[in-house]
Write a structure and sequence with these properties.
Jelly Rolls, 46% strand, six-stranded antiparallel sheet, 216 residues, single chain, mainly beta
């Protein structure tokens, strides 16, 4: 997983795509209605989580199926977090990872994750915030990843109460960054999606949709 995180950070740091200045209140990152946008890149570290777009209830969503695998989709996009601090998305999971414990390397799997990755000239100093659907952490708890100390994990969903249901999330990433890193954020370099089960060897299916950034 350490190599995997480093690969994600390297891709975003080297090849991020700049946004144009805009007065729009929100910017759609992805709704999967027209397939994957060209900014998406796939990266695999152990096995391959299967990502594919499906149609459900007159809507297209991204389906992620993972069995003892870890791979991600990375959306390369640079923007100023102070201008667009709010991140919203929808997700759904079939189950949580029973043996998962993201506070340890041995149990570091999550049914669903959304990363916000920040630009840096130095790979080892690249920071990220990792919003996760975990199995048992208290919602709102945050801590450094055991694989990369500058990747902060934030539990936004926990447990099985909402499994099988679409849940809409909204985070003020600017405020989260200031809280966990105690300084102003650099430019965002990308947003990543990951469903992983490589450490526990379990299986899970997750769905993602309607990823947007916006003003408060």
């Amino acid at each position: 997983m350490q190599i995997f995180l480093s690969a994600i950070l390297f891709i975003v740091t080297i090849t991020g795509i700049s946004t144009q200045c805009t007065a729009e209140q929100t910017i759609l990152i992805e709704d999967f209605e027209d397939g994957l946008k060209p900014q998406w890149r796939s990266r695999t570290i152990h096995g391959k989580t299967q990502y594919h777009i499906i149609k459900t209830e007159n809507n297209h969503v991204l389906k992620a199926e993972s069995t003892a695998s870890a791979s991600a989709l990375i959306y390369q996009y640079q923007y100023n977090l102070k201008e667009y601090p709010v991140l919203t998305w929808r997700w759904k999971v079939t189950n949580v990872i029973k043996k998962g414990n993201v506070m340890t390397k041995g149990g570091g799997d999550c049914a669903a994750r959304i990363y916000v990755i920040f630009l840096s000239w130095f790979l080892l100093l690249t920071r990220s915030i990792n919003y996760v659907w975990t199995n048992k952490l208290i919602k709102g708890k945050y801590f450094p990843s055991p694989f990369h100390s500058k990747s902060i994990i934030v539990a936004v969903e926990s447990g099985s109460e909402n499994t099988g249901k679409w849940v809409t999330e909204q985070r003020n990433v600017y405020e989260d960054f200031k809280k966990v890193f105690r300084e102003e954020p650099p430019l965002v370099g990308g947003i990543a999606i990951m469903t992983d089960t490589d450490n526990t060897g379990e299986s899970v299916t997750a769905y993602y949709d309607d990823i947007r950034i916006g003003k408060p």
